[in-house]
Amino acid sequence: MRLRDRMVQDMGDRVRQLHRTLDLTFPEFPRLVRDLTSYKAAGLLLAFPTSAAFRDGSVETVSDIKYDGRHRIGEELARGVCELAARSVGHHDGPSYRLQTRYACEDIATLRERIKGLDGDIQRSLDQHRVGQLLTTIDGIGPNTAAA
């Protein structure tokens, strides 16, 4: 549980880092994609890390991004992001900003997978522990609370 808590803190740190970078490069982005930890946000920002990158792309290119390997961004969201990018007040665009965005997105994706793995490990441990099984039958007590 302590490791999981640390990973969740690290995830929050990376999200704050991504927010700081987006404030300079594309501050309007979170209006359309609110959850920066989502596959959708990572897919978009890895392909187009700044508002200038979106302006250089096309709605068709953005809509064809497969953000989780299966699902496409879609034309509605792609059009919205491209329109916001065209009017964006974020004018910082350079290799360092693109790299910061990419690294933050990659770190978020890695942490997301590690937290999922830890959640599975915690659940398996609870399934093998009699008290853990009993605790999770109480309303409002989930696996993480029971494990703690």
Number of helices: 9
Distance between the termini: 6 Å
User: How many β-strand runs?
Assistant: 0
Strand portion: under 5%
Rounded to an integer in angstroms, the radius of gyration calculated over CA atoms is 19 Å
What's the helix-strand series? HHHHHHHHH
Q: Characterize the overall form.
A: elongated
Helical content class: over 70%
Domain module tally: 1
The CATH architecture assignment turns out to be: Orthogonal Bundle
Class based on secondary structure composition and strand pairing: mainly alpha
Uncertain segments: none
Give the class-level CATH name.
Mainly Alpha
The CATH topology corresponds to Helix Hairpins
**What is the typical, i.e. mean, pLDDT?**
94
The major pleated sheet works out as: none
Summarize the structure.
The chain is an all-alpha fold and 148 residues long. It has helices at 2-25, 29-32, 39-47, 51-56, 59-63, 75-86, 95-127, 130-135, 143-147.
Based on the model shown, name its key terms.
148 residues; mainly alpha; Helix Hairpins; 9 helices; 70% helix; 0% strand; elongated
How does this structure look, described?
It is a single chain. This protein has one domain: Helix Hairpins, CATH 1.10.287. The chain is built from 9 helices and no strands. The longest helix has 33 residues. It starts with a helix and ends with a helix.
Strand and helix map with partners:
Layout: H1 2-25, H2 29-32, H3 39-47, H4 51-56, H5 59-63, H6 75-86, H7 95-127, H8 130-135, H9 143-147
Helix pairs in contact: 1-7, 3-7
